C-alpha cells in the first residue's frame, strides 16, 4: 500500500493520508505500481469521457478531458515537456540544455511543444470519446505512459548529478523488480483492455517513444532528468491515442 500511495503522491495531486511522508527510496519503489497509478488516473479520465461525452459535443468534451488530466496531475508532465523542448531546442551544449531546462520560463520551443501535444490529444480524443470502448483506451494509455518512465529510469543514469532533482529519486532506486513488475502491469492493462492485437500495438508505440527519447537524452545530456521523464509521459500518451485511432 505504501508503494501505491507514494506513486499517487508523486504522479498526481490526488490526496493521500496527511500523516504520510515519502522519501526518494519510496518513490523509486513505487515505480513498480506506476502503471496502476496511471490506470487510476485514466479511470478518472474515462469517467469524465462518459460524463462529458453524454452531454457535450465530442470536441468540447475532449478539451475538457485534457483540462481534467492537467488538473489531477498538477500539469507535472506538461511542465516537463515544455522544459525539455526549450532545453533541447535552444541548447547547443550539454550544459546549455541542462541550464535552460532549469529555467521555469516557457520559451518558443516549449510553447510549440505544448500546443502540438495538446492539439493531438484533443483531436484524438474527439474521435475516441464517442466510441463504445474509448474508455478502455484512456485507461490503457495512462498506464502505458506512466510505465514508460520506469525502463528509462532503470537503464539510464541521472544527467544532473550536481544539482539533484526529482528524476534522481527514480534513477537511484528503480531495481529489476520494479522494472519487471511495472512492465507486466502495463502489459496487463494494454492487452486486457484493448485485446492482444490492438493492445500490442499500443504497448509497442509507448515502448518505441521511450526508446527514442532515451536515445536522444543519452546523446544530448548523458542521461535523463525529471523533465525528460515527464515529457516522455506526455508524448507516450499522445502517441497511444493516435495509434488507437489509427487501428480503429
Chart the SSEs and their pairings.
Blueprint: H1 2-11, H2 24-30, H3 34-55, H4 58-73, H5 76-90, H6 94-102, H7 108-128, H8 134-147, H9 149-155, H10 166-171, H11 176-194, H12 196-221, H13 226-247
Provide structural commentary:
The protein has 248 residues and is mostly helical. The chain has one domain. It has 13 helices and no strands. The protein starts with a helix and ends with a helix. 52% of the residues are buried.
Name its key features.
single chain; 248 residues; mainly alpha
- What string gives the helices and strands in order? HHHHHHHHHHHHH
> Quick one: overall form?
globular
What are the low-pLDDT stretches, counting only 5+ consecutive residues below 50? none
Fraction of residues in H or I helices: over 70%
Mean pLDDT: 93
Q: Tell me the major beta sheet.
A: none
Number of domains: 1
Number of helices: 13
Number of strands: 0
Gap from first CA to last CA: 37 Å
Q: Beta-sheet strand percentage?
A: under 5%
Structural class: mainly alpha
Rg, Å, rounded: 17 Å
Summarize the structure.
The chain has helices spanning 2-11, 24-30, 34-55, 58-73, 76-90, 94-102, 108-128, 134-147, 149-155, 166-171, 176-194, 196-221, 226-247.
